[in-house]
Write a structure and sequence with these properties.
The structure is a single chain. The protein has a domain of 74 residues: 3-Layer(aba) Sandwich (Rossmann fold). It is 43% helix and 21% strand. Strand 4 and strand 5 form a beta hairpin. The chain contains five helices and five strands; from the N terminus they run H-E-H-E-H-E-H-E-E-H. By secondary structure, the protein is an alpha/beta fold. It has a five-stranded mixed β-sheet, sandwiched between helices.
Length: 116
């Protein structure tokens, strides 16, 4: 295990990561939607956490990056109204907007393929 941790520098591939994604609500008003997204991901078999602390958005994102979480899912008013997520990939730093079900399908495919 120590060799794997050193090899991946703490940033594990999605299929072996202890926490695969974290849901971050932009503000207190969006915690309900964040919880809904959390439940959908959890029921799909994705290991997910939710950061509903009182910290600011930048600090929440920084904490998720420090923890090397593969996908940071930010939800706010725009995402809530459209049923989507603002997705940030930790490895590529790529930011996209995806529908919740599309993200779940893509993450499940990545997990099943055991891609590095």
């Amino acid at each position: 295990m120590g060799i794997m941790i050193e090899h991946f520098a703490g940033t594990f591939p999605l299929w072996i990561a202890p926490v695969q994604a974290t849901v971050i609500p932009v503000g207190e008003a969006f915690v309900g939607y964040a919880d809904e997204v959390y439940r959908k991901l959890k029921s799909a078999g994705i290991r997910v956490s939710i950061d509903d602390s009182n910290d600011g958005l930048n600090k929440k994102v920084r904490n998720a990056e420090t923890a090397h979480i593969n996908y940071i899912l930010v939800v706010g008013e725009q995402e809530m109204n459209s049923g989507s997520l603002a997705v940030r990939n930790y490895k590529t730093k790529e930011q996209t907007t995806e529908r919740v079900n599309d993200f779940i399908e893509r993450a499940q495919m990545e997990i099943e393929s055991k891609s590095l």
